[in-house]
Every structure is written in C-alpha cells, then in structure tokens.
C-alpha cells in the first residue's frame, strides 16, 4: 500500500510519471487528488477565510490516493506543516492510504525544507513530517532528464 517518493532533477519527468499513475488509477475507479504542493498551500490558506479548511483537510486525509507534486518546493509555514500537512499524513499512515510525492529534494533533505529555523524544536517537527513521508512511500531517484525524440 506504499506510494512513491520521486526525487530528482528539474525536468526529469517526476510530475509526468505521477500524472500517468493518477490517470491509470482513475481508469480503475480510484478517487485521487493530484495537487501541486505550493498551490495547495495557497488554496488551504484561502480555505481558512472561506470557512472550509476542515472539509479540505478531510478530503486530503481520506481520498483513495493522494499525489503531492513538488513537496518542499516552498517553505511551509509552521501552521501548514504542523496543523495541516502533519495531520493529513498521519491519518493516511494510520489508514494505510497510498500517497505519492514528487520533489527536487531527496527524501532525507525534506527535513531542512520543512524547518523555519535551526532550533531543536523545529528540527523535531520537520523530522515528524519526514518520518510520515518515509512511512507512506518508497523513494525512487530520477537521475537524468529523459531524452526527447522529435
């Protein structure tokens, strides 16, 4: 039931591969959410003002398959990391729901991307996110850009 964590170079095909997987799963009847993580963060912040943040979080917790593209692509606020992303991932771990990630960062370096500063408390909170990602997925590194044929 584990998903994948695709890491690698910009333009290496991570998003394309995730999108292909999402399309194939949709054909088989699986409900999925495919989200570009930086946009998702902005949408969730807007959902606070619209009064539907809890509904959005519930959807991300319970959808059959969740795809988070470009995780670590922007620095998440402590609120998003601790009150939104952490609970979503924890719920998915407990319910063993497949979760897929794509990032330019290797999985281990997601810790630094999730830290607001270098304090021990921040490191501990970022490690929690890393541990949940590691529990949910297996890392595959794409090391080269695909060659394109005309």
Short characterization:
The protein is of the alpha/beta class and about 150 residues long. It has helices spanning about 15-25, 35-50, 55-60, 80-95, 110-115, 120-135, and strands at about 5-10, 30-35, 65-70, 100-105, 135-140.
Describe how the helices and strands are arranged.
Blueprint: E1 3-8, H1 14-27, E2 32-36, H2 37-50, H3 53-62, E3 65-69, H4 78-94, E4 99-103, H5 110-113, H6 120-136, E5 137-142
Parallel strand pairs: 1-4, 1-5, 2-3, 3-4
Helix pairs in contact: 2-3, 3-4, 4-6
Explain how this protein is built.
The protein has 150 residues and is α/β, with parallel strands linked by helices. 51% of the residues lie in helices and 18% in strands. Helix 2 (37-50) packs across helix 3, helix 3 packs parallel to helix 4 and helix 4 (78-94) runs parallel beside helix 6. It is globular and about 45 Å long. The protein starts with a strand and ends in an 8-residue tail after the last strand.
Q: What is the H/E order?
A: EHEHHEHEHHE
**Arrangement of strands in the largest sheet:** 2-3-4-1-5
Question: Termini, distance in Å?
Answer: 37 Å
Low-confidence stretches: none
Question: How many H/I helical runs?
Answer: 6
Number of β-strand runs: 5
Largest sheet: 5 strands, parallel
Question: SS-based structural class?
Answer: alpha/beta
Q: How much helicity do the residues have?
A: 40-55%
Shape: globular
Strand content: 15-25%
Rounded mean pLDDT is: 90
Give me the Rg, rounded. 15 Å
